[in-house]
Specification:
Blueprint (H helix, E strand, L loop, with lengths): L4 E5 L3 E4 L10 H13 L2 E4 L6 H8 L9 H4 L12 E4 L13 H6 L16 E10 L11 E5 H6 L3 H7 L3 E4 L1 H6 L10 H4 L3 E4 L1 E3 L6 E3 L5 E4 L4 H15 L5 E4 L6 E5 L3 E5 L9 E8 L10
Parallel strand pairs: 2-3
Antiparallel strand pairs: 1-2, 3-13, 4-15, 5-13, 5-15, 6-12, 6-14, 7-8, 7-11, 9-10
């Protein structure tokens, strides 16, 4: 039976009909899921019970998987599979991290509007995030994830602005994004391991031909412009692209698997009760080349 979708945000986010993603899927089903993601760059599957290995294997059907910055660091990890990102507030022994824990402070950068790993020369495509444990509601927020539609944001720009931004290239730097929240305590050698990467400011969706802004908290400045002018332009574009009309806010349930396409979206996490466990697991697929090599 073909995958059915229920729209959650017009032309941007949808909930898919139930499909057990823990079992091996036929190539035709994977193609249907990809087509649904092309139509809705945020796609929600409910009631999934996935081991980390099953999440890894399902994600790998869409492309090679990233090993993220935290997993690439030496030392003990909570999760055994390096291709599974630990999007939690838990330490290696499954204890809630203290508020001054360095890895927790680094991860708070995810509460800025961003695109995953845009600071890498070859960035990522799909993010797949699975909710394992969620904290109870709190006055600080419920840990929602907000997604912004970068295609609709581009479409809404005046034509003169589109013409001006189409050829621009931005420098993306993970240390710039973390500095915005005051975090600068990185392990020795990590700055050298992740130098800034140039990325197109506007990308084209091959499946549909639509253009999209490619923004992120990692975007530091515009190549070839005075730094101050570039940062002001990026601030204006971010404010434009994250207006409520472009945003879908996902309220998590245990068992949710949310898939999003980082090429056409930005996202951010929202606050939650930091004294209770919150455990989400992520797999991320890699692109095939630099955005500079792709047609705008």
């Amino acid at each position: 039976m073909p995958i059915q979708t229920k729209e959650l945000h017009p032309g941007f986010a949808a909930e898919a009909s139930f499909l057990d993603l823990s079992r091996p899927l036929e190539a035709d089903t994977i193609a249907e899921i990809q087509a649904a993601i092309d139509a809705y760059p945020v796609l929600v599957f409910r009631d999934q019970n996935l081991t980390d290995a099953q999440l890894r294997d399902f994600a790998a059907r869409f492309g090679p998987l990233e090993i993220g910055r935290a997993a690439a660091r030496p030392g003990r990890r909570r999760l055994a599979i390096p291709q599974i990102g630990d999007i939690s507030n838990l330490d290696e022994d499954n204890n809630v991290r203290s508020l001054d824990d360095r890895r927790r402070l680094d991860s708070l950068g995810n509460r800025l509007w961003h695109t995953d790993a845009s600071y890498m020369p070859v960035p990522v495509v799909l993010g797949l995030l699975h909710a394992v444990t969620l904290p109870p509601p709190s006055p600080f927020g419920n840990g929602e994830t907000e997604f912004a539609d970068m295609r609709a944001a581009y479409d809404a720009l005046p034509q003169a602005t589109k013409d001006a931004v189409d050829p621009l290239v931005a420098e993306h730097d993970v240390f710039w994004s973390r500095a915005q929240i005051g975090f600068t305590e990185f392990p020795p050698g990590e700055r050298e391991q992740y130098p800034p990467s140039p990325q197109r400011l506007v990308r084209r969706q091959q499946a549909t031909g639509r253009k999209s802004l490619y923004l992120s908290a990692h975007a530091s400045h515009i190549s070839g412009w005075p730094v101050a002018d570039g940062r002001l332009l990026l601030l204006d574009l971010n404010a434009h692209a994250t207006q409520a009309r472009f945003v879908y806010s996902h309220t998590w349930r245990v068992g949710d698997l949310v898939i999003w396409d980082n090429r056409w979206t930005m996202h951010r996490g929202r606050p939650h009760d930091e004294n209770k466990p919150r455990d989400l697991r992520r797999a991320t697929t890699l692109d095939t080349g630099s955005t500079l090599e792709q047609a705008a």
